Amino acid sequence: MTRFKSHMALATITALALMMISCGPPPGPSTSVQRVNPNAQIDLSGEWNATDANQVASVMIRDCLNRPWAAKFKAEKGKEPVVRLYPIRNRSTDHIDWRFLSKQVEMELINSGMVKVVSDLQEAGTQRLERADQARNASDSTVKSQGQETGSDFTLNGWILTQNDAAEGQEVKAYVTTMELTNSESNEKVWMKVHKITKVITRAASEW
Q: From CA 162, how far away is CA 176, in angstroms rounded?
């Protein structure tokens, strides 16, 4: 009899567990992940994205280095010009990761082999702290001295603006990037370019 009651209790518990499972919330939607070529052009929302940053950096720096200022400087000084890049600032109303764009621009400059690039002011501050720490703690044979930095011959500045327009289910987003190169000693501007990326976004009427 005791064994019968034990079986009944086990069956009751099992039935209750099944009822709780069946009454629980439905399973969530499945997640799908697809790996794509990092260089593929992908636009989902029409907002600024990695494709835009890569395109702007490539187009702008290619134009910059193909202008006569770099070759003229090397002919006069006998060395490649040294450039300090200031962050490409976001002056638009959109969220744009200016750090990513700035690093793409810096990479294009360095990889060109036509100029030398020194750290921006924030990175330079980190290196100065490192040298100050070495002055206190590193051996005489390995310590790096202050006051030996390579000065820039030119500074590169830039910013991004947006010009948007919308009507009857369509929106035009225009991202306008401006960059300019300035002689560090004379303040003479030796190069400037404006690059535009324009996107037409069409949405269903219910989304407006």
A: 6
In a domain, 31, yes or no: no
Look at residue 129 in the predicted model and tell me its pLDDT.
Answer: 94
pTM of the shown model: 0.77
Indicate the pLDDT class of residue 18, thresholds 50, 70 and 90: low
pLDDT in tens, 91-132: 998 889 989 999 999 999 999 999 999 998 888 999 999 999
90: in domain:
yes
In a domain, 88, yes or no: yes
Residue 61: other Cβ atoms inside 10 A: 24
Sign of CA dihedral 162, 105, 84, 192: negative
For residue 201, with 0-12 CB atoms within 10 Å meaning exposed, 13-18 middle and 19 or more buried, which class applies? middle
- Chain centroid offset of residue 154 CA: 23
What CATH number is associated with residue 156?
Answer: 3.40.50.10610
Structurally, the chain folds into a number of domains equal to: 1
Q: Which domain holds residue 178?
A: 45-207
